[in-house]
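pipeline: protein-struct stage 2 | run 1193 | Enoyl-CoA hydratase-related protein
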Amino acid sequence: MNDELVHLEVSGGTATVTLDSPRNRNALSAQVRRELSAHLDTATLDEAVRVIVLTHTGPVFCSGMDLRESRGAGSDDQGVNEFPAILSTLWTSDTPVIARVAGPARAGGVGLVAACDIAVAAREATFAFTEVRVGVVPAVISSVVLPRLLPRAGSELMLTGETFDATRAEAVGLINSAVDADGLDAEVARYADMLARGGPRALAATKALLRRDRGEHLQQDLEAMLGLSAEFFASEEGQEGMAAFAEKRAPSWVPDQR
């Protein structure tokens, strides 16, 4: 029995990395993070790979960090500690990366989408920065999300935690294309074909050019944000938020509407 939760398949110059933990809404558990990191490293180092596609099984793209693992853990033990390297690999890889999003993305899952060079989503897909609603901060993902979003949209969506659809995600710059579900694979293939037509060294140099002003210090920024994120995951507020989420109740700071 194969217990792997992230799969890598290489065919025709395209490496497909698939999140396959649908029972856990493809949450970024320790195993998922470990396998995702390993497969991304393998794909980016393979000279035969011209394009990487990050996709998923099940109805949810990625629900973010596995809050069950974060409950009760101190700031040095939080799963977010391993997440910056994954975002950095997606952002800085010489090989272009396409996110294929057929379902909801939340919190860290939105960070994965933002870190990819191209993002295509089914119109039915939804997005949300849910961190503040469980008492934590979208700190680490802000390093890759904020360069994508319109500033006003970033303020609104990160502060409110509101769920928004793929059409809005396209309008504010989070994704490149929102399409009907039955056209998702064709749109991903269209982008993959165009990317494969570029020279590998030229694509790598162009990616470096695109990030030179805002992403050149990504690693330092991710490290700075890591401490803030881990602090809130371990904080009293963060633990209360995660407990409320698990218990399907409102956190203590939400006003009683009765």
